[in-house]
Design a protein that fits this description.
With about 130 residues, the chain is mainly alpha-helical. Strand 2 and strand 3 form a beta hairpin. The chain has helices at about 10-20, 25-35, 45-55, 75-90, 95-105, 110-125, and strands spanning about 25, 60-65, 65-70. The chain is built from six helices and three strands.
């Protein structure tokens, strides 16, 4: 997998696959995308998105009895890590501290959130 994020449409497809949790028929992927986005997509459009994901080795596809099926080859968590690395590199020059500091500064962290972060950091130190 190349260090490059997904286009929004590709990420939408991956979200459907992750939410379905396994091998999914292409027709069901298309219907769920349409439900989530409130618009119709052509079968060739969805096929193109799936083919791009397959070329990047993010999904695996196969045909059984004339029906196309796909399943994700990366977890949502693995992809989130990739996106965070991309963000860190592009915006913060690979400086993890600056990324975390910017996030903390720009969000409304509660005292509970801060305590959880402190606990997590303390556990990593062990």
């Amino acid at each position: 997998m190349m260090l490059r994020g997904l286009a929004d449409c590709e990420l939408d497809v991956m979200q459907v696959l992750w939410d379905f949790g396994g091998t999914t028929e292409q027709k069901k992927i298309k219907k769920e995308l349409e439900r989530r986005k409130g618009r119709e997509y052509s079968r060739p459009t969805v096929s193109t998105w799936l083919l791009r994901l397959k070329k990047r080795k993010l999904v695996e596809g196969f045909v059984k009895s004339g029906t196309s099926f796909y399943r994700p080859l990366v977890t949502r968590e693995e992809y989130m890590r990739l996106e965070l690395r991309i963000l860190e590199k592009r915006l913060f020059g690979a400086d993890s501290f600056s990324l975390v500091a910017a996030f903390a500064d720009m969000t409304n962290l509660t005292e509970g959130d801060m305590q959880k972060i402190e606990d997590m950091l303390r556990d990593w130190d062990k």
